[in-house]
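re: ur question from yesterday

yeah so i grabbed the chain u mentioned. its 295 aa long if i counted rite. heres the sequnce exactly as i have it in my notes:
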Amino acid sequence: MKFRKHYLLIVALLFSCEEGVEQLLDVTVTEAQRFDYLTWKIEAANGTWHFQRAQAETGETATGFNSAVDKQGLDWIANDCVANREWRGWPNFASDGFGHPCRGGGGTSRWIDATGDPVAIGDTLRGNHLMLESSNEKYRVRYHFFSSHAAIEVLEAKDLFAFLWEGPVGGKMAIEKQHYLLEDGVKRPFEHGKGLGYLNPEFGNNFPSPFFYFLDEDADQILYVGASGVGGGGDEGWAQPDNMAIFSFGRDDDKHALRNTDAVAVFGFLDKSMGHTQISNFIRARLEAPFKPID
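ran it thru and got these structure tokens back, copy pasting raw so excuse formatting
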């Protein structure tokens, strides 16, 4: 009987009140090396993220995510800074390279508490709401990590920026079995060969949706990005079939176009089995309360 009670308690802690969304109590951060870069390895219920800090040998600083690994072990960014992969990353925030792995942009990053004071990571940093602040002379952004999702808060922007995803769907591009979906739930093929930043002509230069997500026939999870406060910039959605998908809120004609600090992005992995309606509801709910955990 005692074992059964403990088992039921563990099950209750593993799942949130939102059906189908796996939920652990804590996010765990450790120092790690991913490819030739020192990173912070951020482990949550639905995936693992590597935030790049510096080149391991030279010490040259860098910012942005160079890996997004789902529960199957598929890396949806996989930027090892070699050949075309040098362009991959998230959120690829600024044209000077800030927020883009391997691309310079200077800047420093630190973990902070609720009052904005630095937090020492030690061997492990653990909590149900962890915050990472990253900045250079032009920008200051704050990443919020929960077991359910992650969010980007823009605190300062003295130049233009965007939320730009670049990475292989399901770990490897195979566009004949991959699609992107918007709020309307239509499975659309990845366009390519139409020029830089090409969008489906029916959209003009703006997605008719507050989010997009990627679907791969062989992957158990989907990767999503949602955004609010991004109406002032264009969007793009296209693919390099042998390398990556390139989707953004706020990059128009290859130029970063946002300047307002009320722009917010949410992102993460979700189980494909949830289905489009539940996935959509989840992303919209996160956009309504991006910096709060699920109750």
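noticed a couple things. The two ends are 29 Å apart (CA to CA). also The chain has two helices and 18 strands.
anyway ttyl
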